[in-house]
Design the sequence.
């Protein structure tokens, strides 16, 4: 019996003594994969330090990167430092889980060079035996004071999670912020005197219950399919009293999906955007159950990426700012033949909103012919591309909804008459129809002709 107990004890000692270094090798591989993916995902980072110190029961790692974000960072490069302690010994195995955990990472992420000072973010990552990773993120509350030169920002304590695999076949991430405020006015303060709290009407933005989720999976043919979702319980935008902001949102959800066409080259992707809001309020209008959908099909992602690269080169070239816009449009125009050859299509549907004056609805379907395009630059004429467009659409909305946009309560004037006159002219000419207070228009585009409510005109 003593021999059995001794053998068991010896085996336990050997496991505790020898297994951690083996798991440390696995943890090193997992950390290396994570740092490699992080560097690859960032915009051209420079590696200042990438160090790994292996230990018996724990290891340490440091990764420091610098990124030059032209046009975004005006105070020098953005510096990112990630200090990590990797537990690969017995403490990392408890409590037991399935699949088993072979290492736990405790990381501190610091960002420097931002316009505002952001506190360190704390991350806890579990490396699992099935080559998956689970990350929990905690961000403390912080606040920056508004000044004459910069806005103030107040963010409540925030949390986030990430579940994924080392191969990137599936990634799920989520981040929650209970409250965020952007302050647009300075608050009087003196050295040695306690600062008064910002007044409510100094708020430019106030967001409540923000949730951001990202999902990436591999499709049937191995192409990545990505989905990003943003949910906002309530939002107020614009300076002024809380009861009358420039824009108020309730129950707003935004979803963006991107995937590759299954029967097309991998560079052709589809982007689909959907915006929903239970309530949208401005000083002039109120909308409920609003929905807006937008889709871009057969978009040449390589051409778009090339355009962004050329823009980066343009920003660094020293060209006068007043010329950059014209040159950027020229670069974009040069990409249009590639999109034309692939049959780019745009769809705007559904368009739906309920208002006190009536219903708003519409749709738009627009595509490019697969034809040889004229030389886009120099001497590119935007109207020349209209002959290649084909599409159809319709729009219906209450007339009073348009007229209410002309009111100016602050001046006591009523601009409804100025809006009513052109509407009457368009109705008389047949471009729009009026029925029970609703304005409607339907159009069709093709072969260089535009047909609106049955009236056809040639395009330039």
Sequence:
């Amino acid at each position: 019996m003593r021999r059995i107990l001794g053998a068991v004890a010896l085996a336990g000692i050997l496991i505790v003594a020898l297994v951690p270094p083996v798991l440390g090798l696995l943890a090193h591989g997992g950390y290396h994969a994570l740092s490699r993916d992080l560097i690859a995902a960032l915009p051209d980072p420079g590696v200042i330090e990438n160090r790994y110190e292996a230990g018996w029961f724990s290891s340490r790692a440091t990764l420091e990167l610098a990124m030059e974000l032209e046009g975004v960072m005006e105070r020098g490069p953005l510096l990112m430092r990630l200090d990590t302690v990797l537990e690969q010994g017995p403490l990392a195995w408890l409590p037991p889980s399935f699949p088993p955990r072979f290492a736990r990472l405790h990381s501190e992420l610091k960002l420097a060079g931002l316009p505002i000072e952001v506190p360190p973010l704390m991350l806890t990552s579990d490396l699992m035996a099935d080559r998956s990773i689970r990350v929990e993120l905690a961000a403390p509350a912080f606040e920056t004071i508004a000044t004459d030169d910069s806005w103030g920002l107040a963010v409540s304590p925030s949390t986030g999670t990430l579940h994924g695999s080392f191969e990137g076949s599936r990634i799920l991430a989520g981040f929650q912020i209970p409250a965020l405020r952007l302050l647009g006015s300075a608050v009087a303060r003196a050295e040695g005197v306690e600062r008064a709290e910002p007044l409510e009407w100094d708020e430019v933005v106030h967001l409540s219950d923000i949730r951001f989720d990202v999902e990436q999976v591999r499709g049937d043919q191995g192409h990545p399919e990505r989905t990003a979702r943003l949910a906002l319980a309530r939002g107020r935008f614009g300076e002024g009293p809380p009861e009358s902001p420039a824009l108020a949102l309730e129950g707003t959800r935004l979803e963006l999906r991107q995937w590759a066409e299954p029967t097309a080259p991998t560079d052709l992707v589809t982007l689909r955007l959907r915006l929903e809001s239970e309530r949208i309020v401005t000083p002039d209008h109120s909308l409920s159950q609003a929905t807006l959908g937008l889709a871009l099909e057969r978009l040449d992602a390589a051409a778009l990426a090339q355009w962004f690269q050329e823009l980066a080169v343009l920003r660094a070239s020293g060209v006068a700012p007043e010329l950059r816009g014209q040159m950027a449009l020229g670069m974009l125009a040069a990409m249009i033949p590639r999109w034309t050859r692939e049959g780019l299509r745009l769809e705007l549907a559904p368009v739906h909103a309920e208002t006190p004056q009536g219903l708003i609805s519409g749709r738009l379907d627009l595509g490019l012919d697969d034809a040889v395009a004229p030389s886009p630059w120099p001497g590119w004429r935007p109207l020349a591309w209209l002959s290649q467009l084909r599409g159809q659409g319709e729009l219906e909305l209450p007339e009073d909804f348009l007229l209410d946009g002309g009111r100016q309560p602050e001046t006591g004037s009523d601009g409804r008459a100025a809006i009513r006159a052109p509407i009457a002219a368009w109705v008389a000419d047949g471009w729009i129809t009026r029925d029970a207070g609703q304005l409607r228009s339907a159009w069709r585009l093709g072969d260089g002709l535009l047909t609106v409510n049955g009236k056809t005109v040639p395009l330039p």
